[in-house]
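Request: When convenient, would you put together a sequence paired with its structure tokens?
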Amino acid sequence: METRKEDVSIGSDIYTHKEIEPTTVMNTCDAIAGFVQAMKEYGVTQWRAVATSSVQEAKNAYFVKEQIYRKTGLELEWLSNAEEGYLHNQAVANDTDDFQQFIHDGTMLIDIGSGSIQLTVYNEGRFQFSRNIKLGPLRVRELLKDLERKVSPFTELMEDFILSKIDAYQQFTSPKVKIEHFILIGTDLMAFKRAFSKKNSEWITREHFNTIYNGILSYPEQELAKKYTVSLDAVSQLLPSAMLVKKLLEWTEAKKIFLSTVDLVDGLIVHEYTKNRKKRPDSSLDADIIEAARRMASHYQCTEKDRERVGKFALHIFDRLKPLHGLKKRDRLLLQLGVILRNIGSFVTVDAHYLHSYYLIKSTELIGISMQEQKIVANLARYHSWLTPTEDGLHFDAIQPEVRLRIAKLAAILRAADALDDSKQQKISSIRVSLKEEEVMIIPTSEYDLSLERWTFIEKIKDQQLKHLASLPFGAVTLTEAFFKDDTRTGAAFFRGSTYIEEKLREVEWLMEGANLPIYATGGSSRSLAKVYRNRLREQNNLLELHGLAMTKNDVYSIFGDILSKDANERKQLRGISKERSDIIIGGLLPLITIMKLLDSPKLIVSEHGLREGVLLEQMGM
């Protein structure tokens, strides 16, 4: 119906000042307000507004996002590099004739943004890799502009800089991978296209590119701007863009370059259209996402047999239990990714490999999934083995409630599927899954002894959700007033207090279900205990964060005994206990000590967060 575009200097601000200047924020809000008004005039009821990853690099990115919302009512969605590349791929696949033939021959999609480039390689019709390099032409010019007048020839400096950044990315492509074609994408390539395009053709040959490239090196920017009728700003990005393509041509044997006219907006349109009309472009881009995960798993030496068998079981359970879990098709894809990547942490160490899998997934770009989806996949790997959300409360509770539910459901399916091949010997050939009312039956078919799989399966599918909650009158002030009002440190006062607490605890019928389990503690008294412990460790040059600090029961008893032996004035001198807390610390710690002894808890894990953080996270929707 209509295409509108407004130019604002966001990229220049970010790469020069590390933040978006107030004037630019105002201009951006004015431009977006114009878009919003146009949507109102057309009666638009559904929209999607996105900001690329380069915008998120600004120090004031969240302030800018909030200002845009306040002044225009439009809420921006952050895009990751991987999402942005995926959307561009969708647009190219939809817009380019013979795209399937190109990716069969071997094609590199080169998406040149102002701040970064995204390289995506296909060969023999299959996805090979996709990587983002922070080497966009505007970023390069802004980073090097201070040297432009000091170094001669400046073009050699720029060429060396680009080569130093791009050279390491050759490792991601096997020598066996052929690249016959380049497809060039970018919203700021006007000068490039005017310089290199041939009349009536979207293709340029390697030879034509080299001829033009050698020519533009000898022209000043002012003359290039005149020659190609573009602004000096556009011309300033011509040489870095051309150098990037030149280096990639030297790296590959590509013979032709296709100059695509699509941009991010086209990708968004294609994505929404295919999603709502349930129609897909020619290239199966979900298959690209799965292939990217498989290549990542292979990089970390995970076996294909293991992931194929567990994947088969997980997807069968997901499909059969759809009436029970109510998850969507996209969640099925995330489950597949979780299966493929769950064991990559074993490359670091087998012990607690699920934690290493978690941070490797979180730290690696995976094409086609959002930042939130990447966190979901990472958490599936975190919880697929023995660690559960219940035992990992400090981490799990910080996740948005609706996302926690998705993770919990998918992790339950993955844990069950993983247990069915716990021996890694593919003993089970198939499974049958049936759902009757609230009972799920999973029946394996096998010719082998399944004792290990049976035991592991039962252990992993135990209910890991919150089972019980009780509130008891054990406040630090209340107990201090009742038993330690006069700073009584006698054994009798301690005995009366702990006996009272234990009697109340034993009234809680389910309490002993927590026997021999770690205790997670929050609140001022437990934090003070942890600070005293941490200060002792610091004397041994052992530095630890307070949040998540773990103490053995012997550590806890030892420090509490030390605190108990001191009077109020002496307690004020202890590093880690504030003057305000020193009067009530014994009353505050007594319930903790009593519970640990009653349950024989092996360790105490302290949270630095409390009620304030809980309220804040709830208000933020986290």
The chain has a mean pLDDT of 84.
